[in-house]
Amino acid sequence: MIGYLEGTLLKKDEDRILLLANQIGYEVLLPANVMETLNTKAVGDVLSLYVYFQQTERQPKPVLIGFNLEAEKEFFQYFISVEDVGPLKAVKALNIPIPEIARAIENNDAAKLTQLKGIGNRTAQKIIATLKGKMQKFALISKAQKHEITVEEDIAKQVIEVLVSQLGHKSADAKRMVTEALQRNSAVATPEELFEEVYRGEVKG
């Protein structure tokens, strides 16, 4: 199974690319919100993608779906667990940033979810019913994560903001939770890792 590819960009189409890796050309489907991040990429550039591999008895031809971040791939796997949302439908649907989708799910905002291509109100309600409570860390995904994040204060600030504005914690409590999480694990390098450490501590507590 293919989970990650790194190679040279050979071709870009509207919803897919051709990536040369180890003398093999891989056709990889990209959601619109991933394709947008490749606007600055040209044929011949080096590119790396996390890959979701899809192959079933009903669809024996392998399909590769690419993402910039492992967290985006993880979100996708949650998303396709919703009834009536298969991988190919999900690829077409993801036309707005994942953090916005995650926040809409957590905030019961079905109207926002109907902005996704091919998603009507009934499916939007199914998405909320299935995924609400599981999306907090995906609300923290940022474009900066494609590059290494080294400023601990920036990470802490992002997590505190989500804890307060999205999840209803008091500011003082959020700061305490983040401070304690960083004391337990100073090696966290992304907002998602810090968020997971925060809630790991709360569960243990």
CATH fold-type name of the largest domain: DNA polymerase, domain 1
Instruction: Name the beta content range.
Output: 15-25%
CATH top level of the largest domain is Mainly Alpha
Order of helices and strands: EEEHEEHHHHHHHH
General form:
globular
Low-confidence stretches: 144-151
Helix/sheet category: alpha+beta
Number of domains: 3
Architecture overview:
The protein has nine helices and five strands. With 205 residues, the chain is an alpha+beta fold. It has three domains: 4-67, Nucleic acid-binding proteins (OB fold (Dihydrolipoamide Acetyltransferase, E2P)), CATH 2.40.50.140; 70-137, 5' to 3' exonuclease, C-terminal subdomain (DNA polymerase, domain 1), CATH 1.10.150; 148-204. A five-stranded mixed barrel has the order 1-2-3-5-4. Helix 7 packs across helix 8 (171-184) and helix 7 (152-165) crosses helix 9 (191-204).
List the helices and strands and how they pair.
Elements (H helix, E strand, L loop, with lengths): L3 E9 L3 E6 L2 E6 L2 H4 L10 E9 L8 E5 L2 H10 L7 H7 L4 H9 L3 H4 L7 H11 L20 H14 L5 H14 L6 H14 L1
Parallel strand pairs: 3-5
Antiparallel strand pairs: 1-2, 1-4, 2-3, 4-5
